[in-house]
Amino acid sequence: MVTRAIATVSLSGTLEEKLRAIAAAKFDAVEIFENDLLAFDGRPRDVAALCRDLGLSICAYQPFRDFEGMPEPQRARNLVRAMRKFDLMRELGTDLLLVCSNVSPAALGGIDRAAADFRELGERAKARGLRVGFEALAWGRHVSDYRDAWEIVRRADHPNVGLVLDSFHTLAPRFPLSAIASIPGDRIFLVQLADAPQLELDVLSWSRHHRSFPGQGDLPVGDFMDALAATGYCGPLSLEIFNDAFRAGLASNVAIDGYRSLALLEDAHAPSSARVPPRTKTRGMGFVEFAVDRTHGEELTNLLSQLGFALTGRHRSKSVEHWSQGDIDLVVNYEQTGFARSHYVTHGSGVCAIAMKVDDPTAVMSRAETLKAALFRQPVGPDELEIPSIRGVGGSLLYFVRGDGENWNRDFEAVAAEPAANSLTAVDHISQSMPHGDMLSWALFYGGVLDLERLPQHEVADPVGLVQSQAFINSDASVRIVLNGSTATRTSSARFISEHLGSGVQHIAFTSSDIFATVARIRARGAALLDIPGNYYDDLEAKYDFAPGMASALRDNHILYDRDASGEFFQAYTRVFDERFFFEIVQRRSYSGFGAPNAAIRLAAQYREARPAALLRI
Questions:
Q1: Do domains 282-414 and 424-617 have the same CATH topology?
Q2: Residue 502: what pLDDT?
Q3: What is the C-alpha to C-alpha distance for residues 335 and 352, in angstroms, rounded to an integer?
Q4: Where does 282-414 sit in CATH, by number?
């Protein structure tokens, strides 16, 4: 079984706070970062005792800097300094010192010189029952490549001197991975893991500020793991993350994300030792539930009627309604107690829960629990269905249903009503807004708990800032989730979070097979659509060679349009409901995107219509 570890530098807080968060996330071991120990108000033996009490082993103490290749008298002083660290390590209760390659201008080159230094250090470590691991920093003065570090370790030829491999220092400079397979696994003393977004930065700045957990960035960490597997290495896998946002976040949340990332990496690249139940297949959206009071509920259901939805059921014991159209199921919850009411009191009108259809709800709950998702249960009435659920974005719920309609048949009484218009056929996608710093966490959640693939991130221009947008999709495109976040405080995404008092669903897109007929029908019912400026349509006419009448039809119906090599995309938007969320109507013709070129137009139109007081408060 793989030892899962994390370096204390990855988290915020005091050393004790970090260790408690790491233990609570169920890591097996920890690397103690030197600065954390130096700032600790106690002795190393106190840290050792705390780790024992928390069930953590200490897999390494790090870093020991600027050691190899130094001239005298610095070389002799380095050996004295190392002996002091060895004494500290024995008190701390760890046997491995991580030595990173020298960056000092005084350092002398030469593999044999460095090997001789490590041979002598290995002898001194052996006398104390300790080990030394050598890591190549990507910006090291003479040693920046893991292959050179390995050659130094090989020539040192000492059982107490081994190699430390770091995925970032290997992948960021794009060193080839093939040489890893030639390294004996027992000569690798520690493996550190980190991902990162692809950025055009010097490698030092990139490393110090923009690392992320595996699966959150763009580096081929999976390829690194596959190369590592060929060595037979069976030691700890440790996360070492330098990230400004992580060090500003809650240690408990960051630790859980770290644990989740390691578990998922193991699941994908070391299945024989993985401890994660397999993914279950998603089959589409089950239902979307809105929490409202009576006044806003009546306004919402009036809008739903205008969009062609019909009231098809009432809950047998609760003030809850079922509205449907095509394969879309919506729940409007007026309850004065329970989870939905708490969500309404905290956030106002909005989506409090999403249900996904899955092949096996029990299996997905087991996977979610293993990956540290927060399970949720609430009381149900006699003979009512208990639907498995976990906490989602902004404290909302994510339900899992089989898709056989059992919840409607058991818990709801059918309502005789005029049939729904069926102009809208399915939920195309759901968009959730959150603080920019939370996007990495929820990306790991959706890509890990569910069978969703992460698509490339896009940057969208809001009139008052930039919004980052990240989409997730399942294999048959029946589930699409879009995450939006912004560091700017006045963007639509940021205003939603401020108005909504937290993250949540900002809009829901419905599929139409004929958007022109759908828009005509809902406008005839009194629905107000977002006004799109004429300049946009003038540009469309110049850009595309439309069939006769198409350009005027788009303009007259406030429909946005995009085209790519695969097909066409049509979009229309309702106005924002209660200053919180809105609906989108889309039609796809062999088009897989989300109309990204139109996002700035939509955001500008919504900005114009936003309540002035709401803008002033931001």
A1: yes
A2: 86
A3: 12
A4: 3.10.180.10
DSSP state of 402: -
Where exactly are the structural domains of the chain?
4-269, 282-414, 424-617
CA 483 to chain centre: 9
Would you give the DSSP letter of residue 377?
Answer: -
Euclidean distance between the first and the last CA atom of the chain, given in angstroms as a whole number: 50
Pair type for strands 161-166 and 310-315: unpaired
Strands 29-33 vs 57-64: parallel, antiparallel or unpaired: parallel
What would the CATH number be for the domain defined by 4-269? Answer: 3.20.20.150
Cross-strand partners of 33: 62
Query: What is the pLDDT at residue 612?
Result: 57
Distances (CA, A) of 437 to 211, 248, 270, 434, 510: 13, 10, 29, 8, 28
Q: Let me know: does 241 contact 211? Beta carbons within 8 Å.
A: yes
Domain at 424-617, CATH from 3.10.180.10, 2.60.410.10, 3.40.50.2300, 3.30.43.10: 3.10.180.10
Phi, psi of 13 (to 5 degrees): 100, -175
Number of neighbours of residue 377 by Cβ within 10 angstroms: 9
pLDDT at residue number 613: 45
Rounded to 5°, the CA angle 197-202-208 comes to 65
Q: What is the pLDDT of residue 222?
A: 96
pLDDT of residue 300: 97
pLDDT digits (tens, 9 = 90+) for 25-79: 999 999 999 999 999 999 999 999 999 999 999 999 999 999 999 999 999 999 9
Q: Which long-range contacts (CB under 8 A, 24 or more apart) does 566-572 make?
A: 566/590, 566/591, 566/592, 567/591, 569/593, 569/595, 570/515, 571/595, 571/598, 571/602, 572/515, 572/519, 572/529, 572/530
3-state secondary structure 200-265: CCCHHHHHHHHCECCCCCCCCHHHHHHHHHCCCCCCCEEECCCEHHHHHCCHHHHHHHHHHHHHHH
Helix (H) or strand (E) holding 601: helix 596-609
Give the burial class of 504: count Cβ atoms within 10 A of its Cβ; 0-12 exposed, 13-18 middle, 19 or more buried: buried
What is the per-residue pLDDT for 618? 42
Rounded Cα gap, residues 424 and 509, in angstroms: 10
**Strand residues in 242-347 grouped as ranges (E):** 282-291, 310-315, 320-325, 328-333
Contact 16, 56 (CB under 8 A): no
Residues of the chain with pLDDT under 70: 271-274, 420, 611-618
The interaxial angle of helices 15-24 and 251-269, nearest 10 deg, is: 40
d(CA 91, CA 80): 17
Taking only the tens place, the pLDDT of each residue in 460-493 is: 888 889 899 999 999 999 999 999 998 888 888 8
